[in-house]
Amino acid sequence: MKTYLRFLIVGLVIALGKIAFSQTIPVSENKQFAASSVLKASNVANYNPSNVFDFTQQTAWVEGVKGSGVGEWIAIYLGKLEELGDISEPAVTIYPGYQKDWNSLTNNGIPSKLKIELFLNDKMIGSSVIDPESKGLSLTRIETEISCEKFSAVKGIVWLKVTILKVQKGKKWDDTAISEIYCNFRKANPHKIKETINRFCQGVMKKNAASIKEFTNQPIKKIVEAFTNEFMYEADPTTGPDCSNDPIICSEGTVYLFATEGGDGASFAKFVWINGKWSLKGFNYFNSF
Fold first, then answer.
1. I want to staple 98 with a disulfide (CB 3.0 to 4.6 A). Which of 51, 104, 254, 282 is the partner?
2. How far is C-alpha 222 from the geometric centre of its chain's CA atoms?
């Protein structure tokens, strides 16, 4: 009887442990961003978690707890596995701090050590701890690759969680910020985006108005000039144009195509999956300190 009770107690402890350490999924297709806390909006800006995925350093997620924000986290919905496809080689780029301008960057806290976790549903399939400060590297742009565990699932929600482990304190405020986070699934091909971009670029090189209008309502001349001047080089009419970079597949529905990176930034075109098709959302320029 005692042996039976002992096994029963051990079983309950293990079961409770699994429940305690199971990861609740904080994001979904309808709620694509979540955070452990958010700083209350000011008269000039909000600090919502969605700000880390808008590809501009003019905005940022800022945690909202008392103190430096160590232990606070942000989560991003990246899409459905069945649409993303191969997610075995993710690379994550983070722009820590409030990079709107130099004063915003130095007056607020900058994460100097971060834990990055990739999840499939409630199971962590890969993680990385990055600590650039200890290696004397820049804190304004952090890049890391994640080694994914093998899994048998063919469906599920893929999402990213970034947790602040250490902070370089700001000169003026305790608040800690992250400006941008994006995950590049190099082998993924959601909704056949790679073939789509190639077809679009060929349409641009041939100045095919019908092909371009499938993606955007912007003036054809503007699109042709932008892609010819910045995004394509050594175009071979027999094979179509070469883009300067492969597309950055950030999620199931958001893809960026960068031009050749310059000394202090890069031009990019944004493609978004809307109403069952890819659309060219526009162009922008991404700065870096």
1. 104
2. 28
Question: Where in the chain does DSSP place strands (E)?
Answer: 33-35, 61-62, 73-80, 90-96, 110-120, 123-130, 142-145, 157-168, 177-185, 232-236, 240-243, 248-251, 254-258, 265-274, 277-287
Residue 12 lies in a domain: no
pLDDT tens per residue across all 289 residues of the chain: 545 445 444 454 444 444 434 578 999 999 999 999 999 999 989 999 999 998 888 999 999 999 999 999 999 999 999 999 999 989 999 999 999 999 999 999 999 999 999 999 999 999 999 998 777 777 888 989 998 898 888 899 999 999 999 999 999 999 999 999 989 999 999 999 988 888 888 888 888 888 889 999 888 888 888 777 666 654 454 444 455 457 889 999 999 887 654 444 457 788 999 999 999 987 776 565 5
Which residue, of 188, 208, 243, is where some domain finishes? 188
Q: Nearest-CA neighbor of 222 among 247, 242, 204?
A: 204
Phi/psi-derived region of residue 192, left when phi > 0, alpha when psi is between -120 and 50, beta in every other case: left
Per the CB < 8 A criterion, the answer to whether 36 and 72 are in contact is yes
Sign of CA dihedral 168, 169, 172, 176: positive
Among candidate residues 178, 176, 193, 167, the one with its CA nearest the CA of residue 250: 193
Question: How far, CA to CA in Å, does 160 sit from each of 63, 148, 265?
Answer: 17, 13, 25
- Looking at the structure, do residues 262 and 177 belong to the same domain, yes or no? no
The C-alpha atoms of residue 61 and residue 94 are separated, in whole angstroms, by 12
Instruction: Select from 133, 160, 188 the last residue of a domain.
Output: 188
